[in-house]
Amino acid sequence: MISQAFLQHYWWIIISILASLLVFLMFVQGGQSMIYSLPKNNTQKTMIVNTMGRKWEFTFTTLVTFGGAFFASFPLFYATSFGGAYWVWIAILFSFTIQAIAYEFRSKPNNVLGKKTFDLFLFLNGSLGPFLIGVAVATFFTGSMFTLNQMNQVHWATHWYGLEALLNVRNLSLGLAVLFLARINGLLYIINTLDDEALTKRSVKGLITNSIPFLIFFLFFVISLLFSKGFAADPTTGTITVEKFKYMHNLIQMPVVLILFLAGIVCVLYGIGITVFRKSFSGIWFSGAGTILSVFSLFLIAGFNGTSFYPSLFDLQSSLTIRNASSSLFTLKTMMYVSFIIPLVLAYIWYAWKAINTNKITEQEMNSEEHKY
Amino acid sequence: MIDNIDLSLVDWSRAQFALTAVYHWLFVPLTLGLSFILAIMETIYVKTGKEEWRRITRFWMTLFGINFAIGVATGIILEFEFGTNWSNYSWFVGDIFGTPLAIEGILAFFLESTFVAVMFFGWNKVNKKFHLVSTWLVAIGANLSALWILVANAWMQHPVGMIFNPDTARNEMVNFWAVLFNQVAVDKFLHTISSSFLLASMFVLGISAWYLIRKREEQMAKRSILIAGVFGLLSSLMVAYTGDESARTVSKVQPVKFASMEALYEGKNNAGLIAFGILKDTDKKIGGKKVREFAFKIQIPGLLSVLTGGDNDSYVQGLKDHISGNEKLGIISTPEKMQRGKYARDVLTSYKRARLINDTAQIGAIKNVFKDKDFQNKYFRYFGYASIDKPEDVIPNVTVSFYSFHLMVVLGFLFIMIFSIALYLLFKGTISDNKWFLWIALLSIPLPYVASELGWLLTEIGRQPWIIQDMMTVSKAVSQISTGSVITTFILFAVLFTGLLISEVSIMLKQIKTGPKH
Q1: What is the residue range of A67's domain?
Q2: Three-state DSSP class for residue A147
């Protein structure tokens, strides 16, 4: 007999997988954030935009599915966070809306707003998207200001409606770490898919300059996380209490997660290392796998082992856990059957991805391609 | 429940959602329909091997691409606005409503987004057959996504397959198949996709007509008209059939909406179908609401009774039957429903109070009340009426409902005519000589857009004041955020969407003027 507790964990794993894939796929945003700084000329810019443009749909769809899956499996989070931290989510949405059309419109004649505007849209989405998503995810650990009434309706306790998250240094550090990680992955993807020696050289240089801030912000966030208080949920009563070193305890008490987390970091560093020192083109796959493992582990630390994944600093007992925020047993079970199709989805994505990426993008191809961004 | 909701917050939240939905629906129907037209054209190319068909497919694919991204962009906002602007609703129904949205993402969006990349960029990278399969999968994926969001919307019109859980204060799904095969969902899906096929066919027909007027690309234009004419005619016939089915279902599950779209205040036997009518204000009132009567009408006697009940003696319910009740027909009056809704709300409040003080005896007793089918059917099903102030508030805007419905029907018949004439002239071989028709076809491009938007106006305005029929009013569903925040984002989105629309139209016109590549 499948229990609701099992399904709550199962669905948190699915959410964590989607979140980790999303952060990896934000290499598209990372690439976009460098369209002013990385290319030396218009041809290089066109090549960068086109290599990213062929993958923007995946990131976008993963974000939409992440939202839909969260809504279906943990609707109280959807109602609480989206309905309260209004401005953070709206800013994220806004940045993704301008991205979607920028690719298709930027090089089309008579696009009214001009190529420069659409390039600015790409830059804004590339910079703000990963940063804001990082800040929003950081509140899973640092908490937010809300209360829920008896009918589970949210009341946000500040008039900033989510913008207050930007005043927290830890939130900012994760936001910046995600941004620089997206840029690192963006550079590795460019090295992997573009056939342009000069651009590859610049990308390798860029890797070094982006890796330093990434490591600083990421380590700051992780160290502060390990030594900070966390929000523990009593397994029987569901009562929330503040626990010192909660997230460090989670890592120790879930050694598999600890191993995954460390393996993730090592993979990211290895991906960067082999690109910089061995001139390898495959860094993206190591760094990508590392990104997925690290983000996946972070989500497990946030939601598993009796932890509140969306703590309330205003009213501790309103904090959300995978237990009190989830859908009913019936819905979770129905959704579990639907989730069985995910491996098939991943398989056809991989197949189609390979079919399109068989050869590197060249300057020649950019001149002959009909559907060009 | 939340009291003292700021009405302007509700209005601005509605305005923002309506703005997003209206813009989203300007782009999506073309994606739904044109994707199938592309798939048909490419199939002919692969079957015949003629390069001309490849050129034709690629030309329409360019226009598809321009439209596609903007539909996707507005769609993401809609999905998240359920949470940002309607958080109380999101919790109240998230257990049911979230499921179709998640399935939409997993099943449909990935299919669409994966293969759209192959469709756009794979011409010289994958073999012909793989490319063709990709194009078909884009069409199937796009239309599958429509299925799931329409299932969710249909549930708001006719909530089924759930039970209310007093512990969590929300509705919980108990029958997935009831939600999926909800009659409203089936009608809505078939009507929506067929109307989208029609819209795309008119788009292709109209643009092809322009080429014929200009005496350019005549071979491409005629071949496109052939596909659009056949696809459009079949679709418009399906639109008429599914529209009729849909109206019949509305008359059963949302009788107040149905009476509003017919502007039928007094129920009657042998009710006539209004073919054309103009409404005017009168001094008569239902509560505080003015009754609108026909200043002029052309009606087909008895037909409304026949269409809804099977014969012309059938009684068609009017708005007054629902406000004042009709004992003979077993229709409960709105004031009575309000009483029952308030009783259900009081029971829920008592339950919550008992939970607060941990009064186990009371908790058990009230839980049993909630399990009682009689309580569910006689009281809890009117839960939303507890939030209704005046009985007449359950009447939606009759003027908008009536005109949007009737104009949509008139346009529907016009489309059948246009596609029929197009095919007739094409097979006769005189389509290029009949400039009058080519102009009509060109100028008709916006009409399916108008009809499609009218359909949504009717669906959503006709459902007011409910966000979930009889269960929850729109005013109780809104997120508790500041009105100023919503006004600001409304303006931001209005400016952005309008800018993007202007940009898209301008790009599209330029691409059409340029024509296909040789």
Answers
A1: 4-223+321-368
A2: strand
